[in-house]
Design brief:
Distance between the termini of chain A: 55 Å
Strand order of the largest sheet of chain A: 11-15-10-5-8-9-16
CATH superfamily of chain B: HUPs
CATH architecture of the largest domain in chain A: 3-Layer(aba) Sandwich
CATH superfamily of the largest domain in chain A: HUPs
Largest sheet of chain B: 9 strands, mixed
CATH architecture of chain B: 3-Layer(aba) Sandwich
Bound molecules: flavin-adenine dinucleotide
Radius of gyration of chain A: 25 Å
Largest sheet of chain A: 7 strands, parallel
Strand content of chain B: 25-35%
Order of helices and strands of chain B: EEEHEHEHEHEEEEHEEEH
Helix content of chain B: 25-40%
Structural class of chain A: alpha/beta
Oligomer: heterodimer
Amino acid sequence: MADIIIDMEKCILCGKCIINCPFSAIEKFDDYIVLGENCKACGQCREVCPVEAIGMEENKKETLDKNEWRDILVYIEYHHNRVHPISYQLIGKAYELGVSIGYDVYGIVVGKNTELSKEQLKNYPLKKVFLYETEEYFKSDLYEEILSSCIGSIKPSVVLIGGTLEGRSLAPRAAIEFKTGLTADCTELILGENTDLVQIRPAFGGNIMAQIVTPDTRPQLATVRYNVMKPIEPSLDHEVEFILDDEIGHKASSKLTILDTIPTPKIKGIQEQETLVVAGKGVKRKEDLAMLEELANLLGGELASTRGLVEKGWMTSDRQIGLSGQSVRPKLLITCGVSGSVQFMAGIGGAENIIAINSDIDARIFSIAHYPILGDLYEIIPELIGMIEEKGKAI
Amino acid sequence: MMKIAVCIKQVPAYSDGMMDPKTGVMLRDGLESILNVYDLPAIETALKIKEEVGADVHIFTMGPSKASAVIREAYSMGADRGYLISDKSFSGADVLATSYALTQGMKLVEDYDLILCGKQTTDGDTAQVSGAIAKWLKIPHVNWVTKIVGIEKDSITVSQMMEEEIVTLKIPYPCLLSVEPSIFIPRLPSLKLKIGSKKKKIEVLSLVDMEDKEEGNYGLAGSPTKVERIFPVHRTEQQKIIEKDSREAAKYILEVIENINK
Ligand SMILES: Cc1cc2nc3c(=O)[nH]c(=O)nc-3n(C[C@H](O)[C@H](O)[C@H](O)COP(=O)(O)OP(=O)(O)OC[C@H]3O[C@@H](n4cnc5c(N)ncnc54)[C@H](O)[C@@H]3O)c2cc1C
Ligand SMILES: Cc1cc2nc3c(=O)[nH]c(=O)nc-3n(C[C@H](O)[C@H](O)[C@H](O)COP(=O)(O)OP(=O)(O)OC[C@H]3O[C@@H](n4cnc5c(N)ncnc54)[C@H](O)[C@@H]3O)c2cc1C
């Protein structure tokens, strides 16, 4: 931890720090610069101060033996006998981090029929996977008790958890159990030489990225946004050791009673598509979506949209891409009449190929599209559909 | 009578246009502070329960003194009492320190049967404070609550949205729920309550009031996470914009697609 110190002897009251503080935490009172309640000690003010009047003071915590905590634990989400696809993304990232610093990667599976996960996990770069048999459905208190018991016994330096509904409900309980830091919804992770995990995540509605560390406590907990990290492919070089635990999961208890579960109809969601056509507010009438839907069908994909069309009630929220919607990583993404707001773009970082059709040369979507196309979607799309049909086959 | 605490937060009123896309500098002019929109359904849930079975609804917010404005807003919707948790040493708190200060504050007032939180905030945006509060208090919690199914004497039954199913759960008091925006449409402030809210008292709880007075457990000092750096969203290099007539453009797109799917 650190505190920002302002040396009023040096300060020339230029106000640069006030303007540049992302938290509006700095104010001027008469001849004094005062740090307010919002200060996060991010250090931005230090960088802009022309007279080096701003310093940081480390207030030393009781030192922790970081060597006692090593390796990486991945929480492998497991529903209805299936490993959640985010887990392969976490394993991929954990492996990459592990290699950089000589850490092994461990996995934990909690749920029912956990032995059936072996077949799915056996060729991934995991040293050991702990299988905890317990109730089938997620209960935050029960699952956390099991996870925390596992963390307590293997003492990992880093714990990665999916930024899913389950993961985000589970992670904060575990963080408090160990009185440690938890960084939410990370989009990038780097493991430093000193074993500190550098965690990068969007905040303030996606307008900025924050770089966060947990320097004085272990384990370092992070949830990772679905579909931003690349999944790792299985390889026959890896052989996982599985350790089944039938006790802890049955001894652990929950105050929650599940009365009923109704499966939500499972169509392959936009998060799992290889091809997506995205409609934005450049689409003028609801009926016109049929044309884009047709294009999506011809390409063997699905139609998704920006929040603009969800707000109009033309599209359902499960099809919304972006910060407050889904993250996607298709092979091909075609945006039609999408401006490219930061919030929308926060959801498409994993897309391999982006074709953007927009009639405004200054549209922000063009700054990240691999194939920016200036033009009217009402002219281009029908042409394109015609050409694909002419070829007489779906691609 | 049932005792309900609702946790709400004051946040900056951000919008898409707040960052200069060229320089990456935040445009802060005229940025007001507002009540986190996701907390309105939490207040509404408490008021609905109050109407149904009778309850005392208390509001808790941690923040600087101007955050009392969000308590007034809750008063004008019908909340009974409000507590502002505020102290210089509480500032700069992360999830751990925020949830700790909130639980310390709540403990001073009542043993609540039910604690309600919003789904997330629009600034920190972590959706983690709720689960953290529950763990500090050693009580069960349920996130992503879309419906109150039944309110019983010693438990509450709710629907929870999970990825593959809607789960109906029964939870004994004391417990914590964080609610989805779809749970209830928040009522508008009533004019009568709004006028009354101006005179209504807001109690401030600061470090000296807390059971744990160790400054190092709160705020920046008590936060294990540290924001090292803040920077604008990374942009990839701009590709050349294709300007062709629509037939040529369509042909080009088709070629690109065929190449990708090869
Ligand atoms: C906290 C927060 C979270 C948000 N989360 C999300 C989110 O998850 N997802 C999301 O999408 N948004 C989100 N938003 C909203 C976001 O800020 C934008 O408002 C939204 O993405 C705009 O959608 P759009 O691109 O469809 O519409 P617009 O911005 O209106 O863009 C329409 C585009 O269509 C083009 N166009 C018009 N006519 C044609 C034509 N005939 N042919 C070709 N192009 C044409 C225009 O040039 C324009 O660029 C969020 C906002 C906030 C504040
Ligand atoms: C850029 C940035 C990134 C950050 N990233 C992290 C991070 O990764 N990890 C971390 O630990 N901290 C992080 N923080 C700090 C975080 O914003 C604070 O911990 C904040 O106090 C609580 O988190 P939240 O706003 O995300 O609340 P959420 O967890 O999203 O809020 C959920 C609910 O908790 C209740 N609640 C939250 N805050 C309060 C409050 N002050 N008073 C009353 N009720 C409240 C409300 O009911 C709210 O709806 C970050 C801050 C910034 C500025």
